User: Fold these one by one.
Assistant:
Number 1:
Amino acid sequence: MAVEQEMADVHPPEAEDISEFLPETDCGNCGYTSCLEFAEAVLEEETNPHKCPDLDREFADVFAVIVEMNKDPIPYNLMMEQVPCELIEINGPDKDSPVLITCNFQETVRIMKEILEATSTEAFLLPTHTHGYSVDNAVHETMFKAMEIWKAIKDNAVEARVERPTMIIPGLAEKERNSIRQLTRWEVVVGPVSGFLLPLFILNNK
Ligand code: SF4
């Protein structure tokens, strides 16, 4: 008898989270009664982000790429596969580019790279040692540690690569923010829960 393959969620974006990046005026000019309805329709691919006249063109372009990306769950047999904690440069980042902290689970790093590359987002992606746990599991198992983030920053000489010591941590790791800030003395910004929304988050915070 065939054994059904268990799958792990990749935290695809929710309409509620996306609507926070929209003008939130509920003006109806897109043909939907609210920005939330519009976000739902975009995710269902009934419409596209360019139908909102108040949305910045670059923002709408990035949003459209994200909607089309593969968000299939990950097979559990890939769990715990690790990548080295080495700084990854995405799309030729410069000193003003964001430093994105993630885990060292290879599938998370692969997906993050795909998202950032597909949306032409310039960034430094820094996997930190979580024993191959994904971010949500690492936080649950107390493996998403300030000390490991600090070590990865030092080992990769990240401070010499950026103008300001500011990092973006995954929204799933929000509760670790203070401990990371206290240990590293870096500014710690909490990003979205869904990694698919990171490019929009970065554009919004430019
Ligand atoms: S046109 Fe834009 S601002 Fe107006 S309801 Fe639609 S999504 Fe919201």
Note: The chain has a mean pLDDT of 94.
Number 2:
Amino acid sequence: MSDPDPTPTEPTPVPDPEAYELTINGRTRSVPSAWLGESLLYVLRERLGLPGAKNACEQGECGSCSLFLDGVLVNSCCVLAADATDARIDTVEGLADGDQLTDVQQAFLDAGAVQCGFCIPGLITTVHDLLDRTPTPDQLEVREAISGNLCRCTGYGRILQAVEDVRARREAAG
Ligand code: FES
Ligand code: FES
């Protein structure tokens, strides 16, 4: 006579040789079953549900996918996600403190610098980078800093105004 049914056991996890982890906005995120050739932009948007970095050219030409890798501004479409496992990744989603926008984000809104909005996450990230590195940029430095961020809507006038507003407010605040 055979034994009664054995007690069900948990299935043994199958090792996932392609899995890796990324540190994003201070949190560790697992990336299971990924193709190791995927860009950081693709992994953030399509695998981890972080759509802040935008996908436009995928060739490092438009700046819409800008984020920080170990504090350095990069185009995430040109970075392999699997190469960033030891890096600190900071995306536009991590800039605001909950509902409290950064001064740069607020200035873009106040200046009416947002139209379709597609380029804005990249621009906001780039402007934060500029003002952290160069707190009192002149107009040429501002234009140079955002020259890699393409906007098809605004004509840049209100974007430049927003940057100037933040610069002036920070300067006044000491
Ligand atoms: S999508 Fe990365 S630079 Fe355009
Ligand atoms: S606001 Fe539309 S592309 Fe910049």
Note: Residues 55-58, 60-65, 75, 77 surround FE2/S2 (inorganic) cluster (ligand 1) (CB under 6 Å).
